[in-house]
Design brief:
The chain is mostly helical. The chain is built from 18 helices and 6 strands. The structure holds carboxymethyl coenzyme *A (CMC).
């Protein structure tokens, strides 16, 4: 290591110092290795939300929020969106290489033949209230998978891990579609092996015993695109949750269930649902779109435009650019026949005004992926409370690939953050209470 590859930290109160290595990523921001800080200087680091902390090595996804770049295993998301499919992206994320034709056929075959659920799992659904949120059902049923497969999985056996990964990718659409079917009092529709991943999901959502659902090919393509765009996003809250849960060597189904719980929060996976609720509110009010733009700009008003801005992307969210095109194409494909036309007109008006308004331009507040995915999912007839469920179906491959990477990383440890204690000092239990 050259002299340049360290930083020196000096404790000015004692004059003691420590030289910390700088770790160089293959792409992105250099990282200071603080592991010896505690032993040598007796300090922890303070970083709420881990916004400046790299907790692991990863070779899965790279993103640059300032440049607005997102790559899966080095491949730009734009190129994957144009040329790939969700299942091929799954192969890419799992292996960090695009599959050969033969490998891809084998993968598709495995996923297609593992979509069924154990019949006993059906009973878990009936334990829920009919009005249960589908994400609550997802947390429960995916967690319950661990009761079916717990003793069969040796997480230190690579083959066992791959089987668990395949099972999750294959079964998640079935679990998701059935959470919708249960809430609507509909019979569970079994998966069909002649349909591809996105089409099969739509079939399980909407086919009836009395009438087979034949999806608009446009919807199938748009859903596959949504799956691709949401497949991974490096160390976000739900992925970090899966890693942290799995770091104790917990069952992978239980770890993914924890990831689903994290995703459910409105600050993470719920934004596209919030976009539609906002559009409905705007349409039902007596005010025009400009009134809401003005409210969003008003410092004394807590109202924000849902689907605008991003914590990481301070340039255009590359996923938003891709999905915007599909959204516009879909709306013109549906034309005036669409029952949500008024909502979509409002969305397009909002998009236009915000993109031209100095407040939004100067703060880099562009429409994000949720703005457009919410509109597309609604146009496809997906109910609002299923939006985050669809996100969970797509993100499963990311979660489980990160879990697999973590288990293989010789440097990974059981997650155990430190704290800055601000509570009471040691004191004795009162004599009169003994
Ligand atoms: N509408 C109006 N003003 C906004 C908005 C918005 N949606 N977002 C940020 N601002 C303003 C904010 O008031 C601040 O103004 P000023 O500099 O005058 O104080 C400035 O922009 C910077 O805001 P910030 O809160 O520092 O930005 P942030 O990076 O902390 O927040 C955000 C990012 C996503 C939480 C926020 O933009 C937001 O609440 N957006 C709406 C909700 C949403 O769409 N969330 C989905 C995000 S994408 C999820 C994913 O990738 O999975």
């Amino acid at each position: 290591m050259s002299k340049k590859d360290t930083v020196t930290l000096i404790d000015n109160s004692t004059g003691k110092e420590v030289e910390l290595p700088i770790l160089r990523p293959s792409n992105g921001i250099p990282t200071i290795d603080v592991r010896k800080l505690y032993n040598e200087l007796g300090f922890f680091t303070y970083d709420p939300g881990f916004l400046s902390t790299a907790s692991c090595h990863s070779s899965i996804t790279y993103l640059d929020g300032l440049k607005g770049e997102l790559q899966y295993a080095g491949y730009p998301i734009e190129q994957l969106a144009d040329h790939s499919t969700f299942l091929e992206v799954c192969c890419l994320l799992i292996n960090r290489e695009l599959p050969s034709d033969e490998e891809f056929e084998e993968f598709k075959n495995i996923i297609t033949h593992h979509t069924m659920l154990h019949e006993a799992l059906k009973r878990f659904y009936s334990g829920f209230r009919r009005d249960a949120h589908p994400m609550a059902i997802m947390v429960g049923v995916v967690g319950a998978l661990s009761a079916f497969y717990h003793d069969d999985i040796d997480i230190h056996n690579p083959q066992d891990r791959i089987i668990a990964m395949h099972q999750l990718i294959a079964k998640m659409p079935t679990i998701a579609a059935w959470s919708y079917r249960y809430a609507h009092g509909l019979p569970f529709e079994y998966p069909r092996n002649n349909l591809d991943y996105a089409e099969n999901f739509l079939h399980m959502m909407f086919s009836l015993p009395t009438e087979k659902y034949v999806p608009d090919p446009f919807f199938v393509k748009a859903l596959d695109l949504i799956f691709i765009l949401h497949a991974d996003h490096e160390q976000n809250a739900s992925t970090s949750t899966v890693r942290l849960t799995g770091s104790s060597e917990a069952n992978p189904f239980a770890a993914v269930s924890a990831g689903i719980a994290s995703l459910w929060g409105p600050a993470h996976g719920g934004a596209n649902e919030a976009v539609i609720r906002m559009l409905v509110d705007i349409n039902e009010s007596d005010h025009d779109v400009q009134y809401y733009i003005n409210r969003a700009k008003d410092k004394n008003d807590r109202f924000r435009l849902m689907g605008f801005g991003h914590r990481i992307y301070k340039n255009y969210d590359p996923r938003a650019r891709i999905i915007r095109k599909t959204c516009h194409e879909l709306l013109s494909h549906l034309g005036s026949n669409c029952q949500y036309k008024d909502l979509f007109d409002t969305a397009m008006e909002l998009e236009k005004i915000a993109l031209e308004d100095e407040y939004f331009i100067s703060r880099n507040l562009y429409p994000n992926v949720d703005f457009y995915s919410g509109i597309i999912l609604l146009a496809m007839g997906i109910p609002l409370n299923m939006f985050t469920v669809i996100f969970a179906v797509a993100r499963t491959v990311g979660w489980i690939t990160h879990w697999n990477e973590m288990i293989q990383d010789p440097e990974s440890r059981i997650g155990r953050p430190r704290q800055l204690y601000i509570g009471a000092l040691p004191r004795d239990y009162p004599e009169d209470r003994k």
